[in-house]
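pasting for ref. prot 1 ->
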Amino acid sequence: MTAAPASPDGEMRPELGARTRAELGPVILEIRNVEMRFGGIRAVDKVTLDIRRGEIVGLIGPNGSGKSTLFNVISGYSTATGGEVHFAGAEITSWKPHRTARRGLARTFQIPALFDNMTVLENLLAAAAQDGWRGARERAAEVMGTLRIEHVSDHRAADLSGGQQKLVEFGRVMMRPASLVLLDEVTAGVHLDIRKIILDTIAALRKTGITFVLIEHDMELVRSVCDRIVVMDAGQVITIGTFEEIARNSEVMQAYLGRRA
């Protein structure tokens, strides 16, 4: 895999490259007028969005704009109070997480949701339990090699660094036959070496046809990785476009800086 040019911080980016609609597959995720209310607060307010197979979409916005709540609704950890979610040809609006996972939807969390008292290997094997144990150990060895965490395979998750925990959480996603992966700040706060491992792995998995939606605050990462960017503020989608398009958008400037561009 050929590396892309270095960014201003000197880090080499994986060559993901934006794809045109003609190069992408059919719609894999449809979100229609989705709402999520907590009392009188609309954390997600009539969001409508299509994600195409093989696409990498960035979901950005200020803290509290509804990004993680939208992920929770899509993946079944919260039940929408309005609207519909369709994934891979089925309506999954009220499905529980284990059912959406069986359909092929996987996700990570902003704070890794690992079994703290289990080893790295055991955490990976647990992620494969739903699909049966055949080949699970071999798959786990492959995942640990890709993520370069073989040397901590027998370490408890609670004893790992924050970056290593992020790798294990991503590894749990890789243990399942997912077609759509939701990544919630998967590179936040990690060392540049770990960040590169994650981005390289996303690039490799994308080539197999896996679709990604990622919540991210690092604009350089979003610029270099995503085909499209969805900007949320106050629970609503305020614009969708390429990085260049959203960078010129006055609503985006107002959401992030509190003023018009």
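and prot 2 ->
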Amino acid sequence: MTESALLSDDWPEFPPLDLTVRDLALSRGEVRLCEALELDLSSGDAVFLVGANGAGKTTLLRAIAGFVRPDAGEIDCGGHAEDTVSWLGHSDGLKPNETLRQALRFWCRQSGQSSKAIMPVLKMLEIGHLIDRPAGRLSRGQQRRAGMARVALANRPIWLLDEPAGPLDGDGRACLARLVAWHRGRGGMVVAATHQTLDWPSAKTLELGR
């Protein structure tokens, strides 16, 4: 399935959007993680946050999401974070006893998205055949793909992803790349903390902790 296979009236392009970070300083406890950090992203952009463990990658993602208050500086994501940001942390947001159909229908209702969107997204991630399987019976990689489906179904322009490919095999990383390309093709943007090398064309890199 190609990225364009999901483009329909149910998935219009996002309005033009910029994400800007200016003179940002972040700390964890008494440890200063970064200062004077700058970042500029526009519609269709992606950036990898790289660096050693503890360098501040997750803290920066959480600051953009509005979960963490910076020590200094400004973050502008073109509106309220709750309306523009979709978050994927280390948890995939799934309940073990719920099937993917049940879980994703809930997330569709939360975001005002039609449940008709569920199966096309699952097919892009190559887990459509698992739609009626409880999340607790999925492998870790399958759960991660389901977590990415949740992110897509939120239908928000900015994806903040913390180690999105951590448990994925080669096929899973290819599915993730297709989903990200589709999202960027709609005018969305992606900020991803990663220790893995991911093949996302024209993605920028921001190294933290240097």
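The chain is about 30% helix and 25% strand.
The longest strand covers residues 31-42.
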